[in-house]
C-alpha cells in the first residue's frame, strides 16, 4: 500500500517559504495535495548485493547493468533479475578522488552503444592525492565487458573541495539527445550565482564534445563555461529526469536543513540559492532561503519542496509503461536521509504536483536510497547507499 505524505506542494507561480533562519520572504502555500485514488503496492526484489555506495546504473543492449561505485569502481551485472552475477570492470580509475560525497558518480550509456560501446561518467578528479575538480569523461567498454578505457574528457572545471561536499553529479540525456549535467556548488557561497563557473548548475552540452549548445541561454557568451549553463542558482543537484514523450526535464536537489526541492528545468532560470548573500559575506551562509525571492524576484519557484525538514532527495525517474497500471507517469524520487521513495503525480503541463505518496515497500525498509533508473524491461532499478553490502533493487508494480 502507499502512504500519503502531508507535504508542501507549490505550483510554478507559488512563492517558497523562507528557511527557518533565512531572509524573510512572502509565503504562499498551496493546499495539501489530494490522495492518490486506489493506491497499489510495489514488488521489490534484490538483484545483487555486495556493493559499496553504488551511485548510478546504466543498461546495456545485451541485458547487462553497469554500476558506478563511489570509491572508484565499475561493476557489470549479468542481468536485471535476482541472482545476477557481478564482474568488476578493469579500468584505470586511480585519478578518482573518493572523499566524502565525492568519487565516481553519475553514469549514462550512449544510446548508440551497440556501435560505439561508449558510456559517460562524472567523477571527482585528483592529481597526486590532491582534489582538482569534478569532470565528465567518456569511456569505451571492451567487447567482453571485462575492461574499459578512456575515450575522451568532455567537461572539466566543475568545482571540488577537499571534503568532497556538494560534488553533484548526475547525468541524463535531454529531449534532443543533449547531455544534461547536474552539479553541486562545492559548498562555496559564490558558486551558484557565478555564471562563469560550473558549480551549482545544470549544464547542457553536446554529448560527444562537451561544448555548450548553440541554443543554450548564454550561447553568445565569450566564456566557454557560461555557454554550457542551462540553469543556475542551485545547491546540489542529485537527480535529473526527462518526462517521457515530452521536453519536460525535472531535477531533485538537496536543501540545507529544510526545503529539498523538485524543480522544473527552465532554460536560463535562476533557482535562487545564494549563500554568499550577493557576495556580502565570505562564509557559506546556509541560513538563506533555498529560493531567495527577495534577492531574486524572478527566481524559478520550486515545483515541490519538503518544507521544514530535509529528506536528502536524490535520484529521479518517471515510471513509464502500461505495466505500472495506475502508477504510470509518476515521478519517483529517492531519498538518502529519509530512506524512502516519494511518488509525485504531476499535471500534464508539468507545472503542478497533484499528489505525493510514499509506498510502504520503500519506506525505511532498505536503508538509504540513491539511484533510480528505468530499465529497458520497464522495471525501476534502485540502489541502496549505506556503504556496506549495498544492493541493486528491482521495483515493479505489485
Describe this structure in words.
Residues 6-39 have low confidence and may be disordered. A hairpin with a 6-residue loop joins strand 10 and strand 11 (148-158). The protein is mainly β. A five-stranded antiparallel sheet has the order 1-23-22-21-20, with no helix packed on it. Strands 2-19-18-17-16 form a five-stranded antiparallel sheet, with no helix packed on it. It is built from two helices and 26 strands.
Query: How many β-strands, per DSSP?
Result: 26
Going by helix content, strand content and strand pairing, the class is mainly beta
Task: Quote the average pLDDT.
Answer: 92
Q: Determine the strand fraction and express it as a percent band.
A: 35-45%
| Lateral arrangement of strands in the main beta sheet | 1-23-22-21-20
Regions with pLDDT < 50 over 5+ consecutive residues?
Answer: 6-39
Q: Please tell me how large the radius of gyration is.
A: 20 Å
Please trace the helix and strand order, writing H or E for each element.
EEEEEEEEHEEEEEEHEEEEEEEEEEEE
Q: What is the first-to-last residue Cα distance?
A: 9 Å
Q: Biggest β-sheet, characterized? A: 5 strands, antiparallel
The helical percent reads: under 10%
SSE blueprint and pairings:
Layout: E1 2-4, E2 8-9, E3 42-51, E4 54-59, E5 65-69, E6 73-77, E7 86-89, E8 104-109, H1 113-116, E9 118-127, E10 130-141, E11 148-158, E12 170-173, E13 179-182, E14 201-205, H2 224-228, E15 229-232, E16 237-242, E17 249-253, E18 261-264, E19 304-305, E20 313-318, E21 331-335, E22 340-346, E23 353-359, E24 369-374, E25 380-384, E26 390-397
Antiparallel strand pairs: 1-23, 2-19, 3-26, 4-5, 5-6, 6-7, 8-9, 9-10, 10-11, 12-13, 13-14, 14-15, 16-17, 17-18, 18-19, 20-21, 21-22, 22-23, 24-25, 25-26
Amino acid at each position: 500500500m502507499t502512504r500519503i505524505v502531508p507535504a508542501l506542494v507549490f505550483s510554478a507561480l507559488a512563492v517558497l517559504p523562507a528557511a527557518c533562519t533565512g531572509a524573510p520572504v512572502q509565503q504562499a502555500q498551496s493546499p495539501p495535495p489530494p490522495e492518490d485514488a486506489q493506491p497499489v503496492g510495489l514488488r521489490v526484489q534484490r538483484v545483487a548485493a555486495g556493493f559499496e555506495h553504488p551511485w548510478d546504473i546504466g543498461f546495456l543492449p545485451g541485458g547487462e547493468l553497469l554500476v558506478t561505485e563511489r570509491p572508484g569502481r565499475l561493476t557489470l551485472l549479468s542481468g536485471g533479475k535476482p541472482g545476477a552475477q557481478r564482474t568488476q570492470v578493469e579500468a584505470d580509475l586511480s585519478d578518482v578522488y573518493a572523499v566524502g560525497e565525492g568519487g565516481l558518480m553519475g553514469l549514462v550509456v550512449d544510446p548508440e552503444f551497440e556501435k560505439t560501446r561508449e558510456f559517460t561518467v562524472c567523477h571527482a578528479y585528483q592529481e597526486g592525492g590532491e582534489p582538482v575538480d569534478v569532470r565528465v569523461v567518456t569511456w569505451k567498454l571492451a567487447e567482453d565487458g571485462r575492461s574499459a578505457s578512456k575515450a575522451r574528457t568532455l567537461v572539466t572545471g566543475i568545482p571540488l573541495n577537499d571534503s568532497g561536499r556538494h560534488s553533484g553529479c548526475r547525468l541524463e540525456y535531454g529531449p534532443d539527445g543533449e547531455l544534461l549535467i547536474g552539479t553541486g556548488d562545492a559548498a562555496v557561497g559564490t558558486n551558484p550565482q557565478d555564471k562563469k563557473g560550473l558549480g551549482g548548475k545544470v549544464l547542457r552540452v553536446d554529448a560527444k564534445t562537451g561544448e555548450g549548445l548553440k541554443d543554450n541561454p548564454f550561447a553568445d557568451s565569450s566564456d566557454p563555461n557560461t555557454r554550457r549553463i542551462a540553469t543556475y542558482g542551485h545547491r546540489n543537484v542529485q537527480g535529473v529526469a526527462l518526462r517521457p514523450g515530452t521536453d519536460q526535464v525535472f531535477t531533485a536537489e538537496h536543501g540545507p536543513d529544510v526545503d529539498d526541492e523538485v524543480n522544473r528545468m527552465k532554460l536560463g532560470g535562476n533557482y535562487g540559492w545564494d549563500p554568499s548573500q550577493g557576495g556580502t559575506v565570505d562564509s557559506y551562509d546556509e541560513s538563506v532561503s533555498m529560493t531567495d525571492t527577495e534577492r531574486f524576484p524572478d527566481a524559478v519557484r520550486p515545483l515541490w519542496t519538503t518544507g521544514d525538514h530535509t529528506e536528502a532527495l536524490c535520484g529521479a525517474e518517471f515510471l513509464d509503461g502500461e505495466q505500472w497500471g495506475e502508477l504510470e507517469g509518476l515521478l519517483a524520487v529517492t531519498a538518502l536521509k529519509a530512506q524512502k521513495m516519494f511518488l509525485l503525480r504531476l499535471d500534464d503541463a508539468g507545472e503542478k504536483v497533484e499528489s505525493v505518496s510514499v509506498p510502504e515497500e520503500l519506506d525505511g525498509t532498505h536503508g538509504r536510497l540513491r539511484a533510480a533508473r528505468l530499465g529497458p524491461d520497464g522495471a525501476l532499478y534502485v540502489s541502496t547507499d549505506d556503504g556496506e553490502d549495498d544492493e541493486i533493487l528491482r521495483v515493479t508494480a505489485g
